[in-house]
Design goal:
Blueprint (H helix, E strand, L loop, with lengths): L3 H4 L15 E9 L13 E7 L6 E2 L12 E6 L2 E2 L2 E4 L3 E5 L11 E10 L2 E2 L3 E6 L4 E2 L8 E2 L2 E3 L20 E2 L5 E7 L4 E2 L9 E2 L2 E2 L3 E2 L6 E5 L2 E2 L1 E7 L7 E6 L7 E10 L2 E2 L4 E6 L1
Parallel strand pairs: 12-26, 14-26
Antiparallel strand pairs: 1-2, 2-7, 3-6, 4-5, 4-8, 6-7, 8-9, 8-10, 11-15, 13-15, 15-23, 16-19, 17-18, 20-21, 20-24, 22-23, 24-25, 24-26
Length: 278
């Protein structure tokens, strides 16, 4: 899966005012896929919005992800450094540390502080929940065409030719191919993994499944429950999950069929769509 450039929504950039400390907006930490603000899940990719967050744009090029990037010396949640994907003056994309929610807790609060070479932000509180799934979308807003692919050829399940520069075709029910839904916020995995790491170590892959599996994990396409064949971390990436399903014969067809992922009763918006054919 080479669509990470699509999965991390990046806000418009603005120059950092000299000497000004960073500011994190109240309610400014959201799920990076859905932009839902009611909570974020440990291990997920989050977007942090504010001002003076970094002197200039910087994008991580290492795995494990570093906890400092460009002019940003740290982003902490309850004093735990977060691995950083991207930093800019108005937005930071980071992985929420797995330790952000106390073991056994269904929810809690984390205090976020951004520190740069000009100072530290005032602490802002963030609601942390066990799971809050969000599906990545092409427009990076959490609505419209979802990033969901045919496992056989990697094509995005969209109308043929509808996305310039990308291979697209509807996912075919009769083909029996798995539909791979790219998302974040699905919570803890087993075996566990260190913050900032992917599932490879010295070239060896460790398959990591989400702790929540069916029946606690449900995928709906066009309102029809689907057969989940895998739910876990996308091996190459940090904080990105994939849920693989085989479509039921009764799944509706069309170019804008709603797709939803539900984990422990928490369901993604019905505003994300894919193309399905017979």
């Amino acid at each position: 899966m080479r669509l990470i450039v699509l999965t991390l929504g990046i806000a418009a950039l603005a120059p950092l005012a000299d000497g000004q400390a960073p500011v994190v907006n109240a309610g400014g930490v959201v799920n990076n896929a859905s932009y839902a603000a009611q909570g974020v899940a440990p291990g997920s990719i989050v977007a942090i919005f504010g001002s003076n967050l970094a002197a200039k744009l910087a994008i991580s090029d290492t795995i494990p992800l570093s906890t400092n990037l460009g002019s940003v010396t740290s982003v902490t949640f309850n004093k735990v450094p977060a691995p950083l994907y991207f930093v800019g003056s108005l937005q930071i994309d980071a992985q929420l540390p797995y330790e952000s929610l106390q073991s056994g807790s269904a929810s809690g609060t984390a205090n976020i502080v951004v520190t740069t070479n000009t100072g530290s932000s005032a602490s802002q509180s963030v609601n942390v929940v066990q799971t809050l799934p969000g599906i990545f979308t092409v427009n990076q807003s959490g609505t419209g065409q979802g990033i969901a692919t045919d496992n056989n050829d990697g094509a995005i399940a969209a109308a043929a030719g509808s996305l310039s520069g990308l291979t697209t075709h509807p996912i075919s029910i009769s083909s029996g191919h798995a539909l791979v839904i790219w998302c974040t916020g699905l919570g803890a995995v087993t075996p566990s993994i260190a913050d900032g790491s992917n599932s490879y170590s010295n070239g060896v892959l460790t398959l990591r499944k989400t702790v929540v599996q069916p029946p606690g994990l449900v995928v709906l396409v066009g309102g029809v429950s689907q057969q989940v064949v895998f739910s876990g971390l996308a091996p190459e990436f940090v904080g990105e999950y994939q849920v693989d399903v085989v479509l039921a014969p009764s799944t509706p067809t069309g170019n804008a069929i709603p797709v939803q992922v539900q984990v422990n009763g928490v369901t993604t918006s019905d505003k994300v769509t894919i193309a399905v054919s017979n």
